[in-house]
Each structure stands twice: as C-alpha cells, then as structure tokens.
Amino acid sequence: MIKIYAPASIGNVGVGFDILGAAITPINGDLLGDCITIKRSEKFQLFNKGAFSNQLPENHKQNIAWKCWSKFCNVVKKNIPVSILLEKNLPIGSGLGSSACSVVATLVAINEIFNSPLNSKELLLLMGEVEGEISGSIHYDNVAPSYFGGLQLILEDTHIISQTIPNFKNWLWIVAWPGIKLSTAEARKILPKKYTKDVCVKNSRYLAGFIHASYTQQSDLAARSMKDFIAEPYRSKLLPNFFENKKQVKKLGAISCGISGSGPTIFAISDNIKIAKKISLWLEQNYLQNKTGFVYICYIDTKGVRKIG
Ligand code: HSE
C-alpha cells in the first residue's frame, strides 16, 4: 500500500498566465493538498474521504482518479486493477489547483503500483492531458508545481515542459479561498481570444522582469513586476469585491496581490510575518463569504508530490 500527497498550487502567479505556477504549503504544518492511498485489488475500486469529498461526482467514472487510471492503462497497454482512496482536502473550483492535486497524486501512485513504466516527462504529459480534459485546455501551471514543487516556469519546448526557477525564501504567500466555486473552464471562456500588441509587449516586459528579478534575487523588482494584463481585468468581476480587497491588502503592507489560478482564491505576499498575519485576519473577516472559506499563510513547497504516512 502506498500513500501519496500532492500540494496545492498558485497558477499564473499574477504575471505568468499559463506560464508560472508555485506549489505552496501552510506554515502551520496543515496539509493543503490531496492524498491518494493505493493498493492492488481484484477489481477497480474507488473510495472518497476528506473535507471536500462531498463535492465529488457520485458516478465514479466521472471521478478524476478513475479517469487517471483508465488513461494510464490505455497508455501502458496493461490493465492492473487497483483500489484507490482519494482524500479530497482541497475544494473543487477554488483556484488552488485542486484537480491538478488529484491528477498528480493519482498518476504518481498508479505509476508506482505498475512498477514505474512511465518516466517523469511522460507522466507530466499525461497529467497535462487529463488536466486539459477537465479544465477545457491543456495548461501545466498547476500540475507541474504540484509534481515538481517550487516555482515552475512552463516552457514552449518539445523536450522540456517545465523548469524550476529561483524563488524568494522569505516570501509568505497568504491564500484566501472565499468558500465559493468557480469553474476553470468558465473562467477561461470569458477571456478574450486576442490581445493587442501593446498588451502583449507589456505582458512580456513584466514577465521577463519577474524572471530576471527571480534569478538576481531582487525581491522588490519581482513584486513590482507581478502585474496581470491577461486575466485579472476580465476575471476580477467573478470574485467578491476583488479590487477593494486588493487595495486594502496592499494598504496593510502586501508587496503583491492577485488572483490564484482562475480564482476565486486570491493571494497576497509579504516578507514579514506580522504583516502576513494582519492580512490573513483581514481577509478572513472581509473576503470569506461563508464558513467553509479559509485563509492560510504559506511558504513555497519545494518538495512537490511525495510519499507520506
Ligand atoms: N492558468 C490557468 C488559468 C490556471 O488561469 O486558467 C487554472 O488554475
């Protein structure tokens, strides 16, 4: 029996739509991600538990774990029945890479049980494919960080899909999920099909600035570079009072604030724990829409998917 954990992630990281993703882990030691326990079995079996398992489809053929298993069997041309326990600790449609967590943990667990027929690149490609079917189009900015950990830069290269880039060790990432659902597919549909040259150039400059600042460890420049011209102008209206919350969080001292993935989670950054706690409290009192919502102060999770238990 194997138990695998995959961490939550912040897609886009503000400035890198479909290009940057960061894996995160709460500083209080909580697990913010999904777990898969797997063993060989007579026939395929799937059990769900965890705080958000009530959001999973009843028909197990619609469950991500089943999709992963059936795809994996097709790819390796082998059918090994397994029994899977999915611990759904992340809310679905939260903007924290919830589906990616399930995909990454499940495919890594299945690969282990099948004696590792796929290498890491083949596994990542498969993760992107499954994630693409769920969210409407292939993007790696949640699966790659959840798999490798750290801050990932998604490339447009036939050989290398994603690379780890340096992050700022003293940055605290405050994530606030308001307790409401937003489908990634819907949040992608509302984006324009085309952007003007002006926006493309600006976006490239800010993203290049962020990458440069990361490599040269210029924290202020990196934080100032985290501007989103691609998604935030269109998605902000889907989030509760996004701009007002962003303004207040910045007033409290956040060096950056943006939408996590496709939302409705927002993230804020501070390198000072006292400020991070103030931001966290403010978001708890103002951004959460119901009792299921949560706020966590996180570090970058540098380990990515791992065996636990
Ligand atoms: N890059 C993706 C998007 C992330 O913004 O649609 C989804 O979590």
From TrEMBL:
Its main location: cytoplasm. It catalyses: L-homoserine + ATP = O-phospho-L-homoserine + ADP + H(+). One of its GO terms (molecular function) is ATP binding. It holds the Pfam family GHMP_kinases_N. SUPFAM superfamilies: GHMP Kinase, C-terminal domain, Ribosomal protein S5 domain 2-like. Residues 63-150 form the GHMP kinase N-terminal domain. It comes from the Bacteria. Keywords: Amino-acid biosynthesis, ATP-binding, Cytoplasm, Kinase, Nucleotide-binding, Threonine biosynthesis, Transferase. Its EC number is 2.7.1.39. Belongs to the GHMP kinase family. Homoserine kinase subfamily. This is Homoserine kinase. It comes from Buchnera aphidicola (Aphis glycines).
